Amino acid sequence: MLRSVLTSTNAEPKPWSVLQGQEENALRIGRLAGVTGVSRDTLRFYEKRGLIRSERHGNSYRDYPEETPQLIGYIRTAQALGFSLSEIGEHLPALWGAKAPGSEVAALLREKIGAIEARIVALTALRDELIARLDAVCPLRTASRN
Asked: Model's pTM, two decimal places?
Protein backbone atom coordinates (compact mmCIF):
# COMPACT_ATOMS: atom_id res chain seq x y z
CA MET A 1 0.00 0.00 0.00
CA LEU A 2 2.71 2.49 0.97
CA ARG A 3 4.60 1.63 -2.23
CA SER A 4 1.56 2.58 -4.32
CA VAL A 5 1.37 5.96 -2.57
CA LEU A 6 5.07 6.61 -3.15
CA THR A 7 5.03 5.73 -6.83
CA SER A 8 3.54 7.36 -9.86
CA THR A 9 1.87 5.57 -12.75
CA ASN A 10 5.27 4.80 -14.32
CA ALA A 11 6.58 3.30 -11.03
CA GLU A 12 8.98 6.22 -10.36
CA PRO A 13 9.11 7.36 -6.73
CA LYS A 14 7.81 10.88 -6.25
CA PRO A 15 9.57 13.43 -4.07
CA TRP A 16 7.94 14.13 -0.72
CA SER A 17 6.89 17.62 -1.80
CA VAL A 18 4.91 16.23 -4.71
CA LEU A 19 3.13 13.88 -2.33
CA GLN A 20 1.99 16.97 -0.43
CA GLY A 21 0.31 18.37 -3.54
CA GLN A 22 3.05 20.75 -4.58
CA GLU A 23 4.36 21.19 -8.09
CA GLU A 24 7.44 19.19 -9.00
CA ASN A 25 8.79 22.10 -11.10
CA ALA A 26 8.29 24.75 -8.42
CA LEU A 27 11.10 27.28 -8.25
CA ARG A 28 12.02 27.05 -4.59
CA ILE A 29 14.87 28.83 -2.88
CA GLY A 30 17.33 25.93 -3.16
CA ARG A 31 16.69 25.46 -6.86
CA LEU A 32 16.81 29.23 -7.47
CA ALA A 33 20.13 29.45 -5.61
CA GLY A 34 21.53 26.64 -7.76
CA VAL A 35 20.30 28.13 -11.02
CA THR A 36 21.56 31.66 -10.29
CA GLY A 37 24.69 30.94 -8.26
CA VAL A 38 23.40 33.25 -5.52
CA SER A 39 23.24 32.00 -1.93
CA ARG A 40 19.97 31.36 -0.16
CA ASP A 41 20.84 34.06 2.34
CA THR A 42 21.33 36.56 -0.50
CA LEU A 43 17.98 35.56 -2.02
CA ARG A 44 16.28 36.09 1.35
CA PHE A 45 18.03 39.45 1.66
CA TYR A 46 16.88 40.49 -1.84
CA GLU A 47 13.35 39.47 -0.91
CA LYS A 48 13.50 41.41 2.36
CA ARG A 49 14.65 44.48 0.38
CA GLY A 50 11.73 44.04 -2.02
CA LEU A 51 13.90 43.27 -5.05
CA ILE A 52 12.33 39.84 -5.62
CA ARG A 53 9.07 38.24 -4.50
CA SER A 54 7.94 34.79 -3.55
CA GLU A 55 4.67 33.16 -2.75
CA ARG A 56 4.48 31.42 0.62
CA HIS A 57 2.48 28.26 1.18
CA GLY A 58 1.21 26.64 4.36
CA ASN A 59 4.48 24.76 4.70
CA SER A 60 6.45 28.08 4.67
CA TYR A 61 8.25 27.15 1.44
CA ARG A 62 8.96 30.03 -0.91
CA ASP A 63 7.91 29.56 -4.53
CA TYR A 64 9.45 32.13 -6.87
CA PRO A 65 8.00 33.25 -10.21
CA GLU A 66 9.67 31.70 -13.27
CA GLU A 67 11.18 35.05 -14.33
CA THR A 68 13.11 35.39 -11.04
CA PRO A 69 16.42 33.96 -12.39
CA GLN A 70 16.40 36.62 -15.11
CA LEU A 71 15.63 39.28 -12.51
CA ILE A 72 18.49 38.07 -10.30
CA GLY A 73 20.77 38.30 -13.35
CA TYR A 74 19.73 41.92 -13.83
CA ILE A 75 20.35 42.71 -10.16
CA ARG A 76 23.80 41.11 -10.20
CA THR A 77 24.78 42.89 -13.43
CA ALA A 78 23.59 46.24 -12.09
CA GLN A 79 25.61 45.68 -8.91
CA ALA A 80 28.70 44.84 -10.97
CA LEU A 81 28.20 48.13 -12.85
CA GLY A 82 28.31 50.07 -9.58
CA PHE A 83 24.61 50.48 -8.81
CA SER A 84 23.64 50.13 -5.15
CA LEU A 85 20.77 47.88 -4.12
CA SER A 86 18.84 51.04 -3.23
CA GLU A 87 19.33 52.40 -6.76
CA ILE A 88 18.37 49.04 -8.25
CA GLY A 89 15.24 48.86 -6.10
CA GLU A 90 14.29 52.40 -7.04
CA HIS A 91 14.42 51.75 -10.79
CA LEU A 92 13.54 48.08 -10.95
CA PRO A 93 9.73 48.31 -11.17
CA ALA A 94 9.79 50.73 -14.13
CA LEU A 95 12.52 48.83 -15.97
CA TRP A 96 11.04 45.40 -15.37
CA GLY A 97 7.61 46.49 -16.55
CA ALA A 98 8.82 48.39 -19.64
CA LYS A 99 8.19 46.89 -23.07
CA ALA A 100 11.51 48.19 -24.42
CA PRO A 101 13.67 49.13 -21.44
CA GLY A 102 16.82 49.74 -23.51
CA SER A 103 16.51 53.52 -23.65
CA GLU A 104 15.64 53.71 -19.94
CA VAL A 105 18.67 51.58 -19.06
CA ALA A 106 20.86 53.73 -21.30
CA ALA A 107 19.64 56.86 -19.46
CA LEU A 108 20.49 55.25 -16.11
CA LEU A 109 23.95 54.32 -17.41
CA ARG A 110 24.55 57.91 -18.58
CA GLU A 111 23.47 59.18 -15.16
CA LYS A 112 25.84 56.72 -13.46
CA ILE A 113 28.70 57.78 -15.76
CA GLY A 114 28.07 61.42 -14.77
CA ALA A 115 28.20 60.49 -11.07
CA ILE A 116 31.42 58.55 -11.61
CA GLU A 117 33.00 61.47 -13.49
CA ALA A 118 32.05 63.85 -10.67
CA ARG A 119 33.54 61.44 -8.16
CA ILE A 120 36.75 61.22 -10.23
CA VAL A 121 37.04 65.03 -10.17
CA ALA A 122 36.55 65.06 -6.38
CA LEU A 123 39.07 62.24 -5.87
CA THR A 124 41.61 63.98 -8.12
CA ALA A 125 41.28 67.18 -6.06
CA LEU A 126 41.70 65.16 -2.86
CA ARG A 127 44.80 63.42 -4.27
CA ASP A 128 46.28 66.78 -5.26
CA GLU A 129 45.63 68.13 -1.76
CA LEU A 130 47.33 65.11 -0.17
CA ILE A 131 50.34 65.44 -2.48
CA ALA A 132 50.62 69.15 -1.61
CA ARG A 133 50.70 68.30 2.11
CA LEU A 134 53.45 65.66 1.84
CA ASP A 135 56.29 68.18 2.22
CA ALA A 136 54.63 70.25 4.96
CA VAL A 137 56.12 70.35 8.46
CA CYS A 138 52.76 69.19 9.82
CA PRO A 139 50.69 67.71 6.98
CA LEU A 140 47.46 67.97 8.97
CA ARG A 141 47.62 71.76 9.35
CA THR A 142 46.10 73.94 6.67
CA ALA A 143 48.45 75.71 4.26
CA SER A 144 48.02 79.08 6.01
CA ARG A 145 49.23 77.62 9.34
CA ASN A 146 52.45 76.02 8.04
From this structure: 0.70
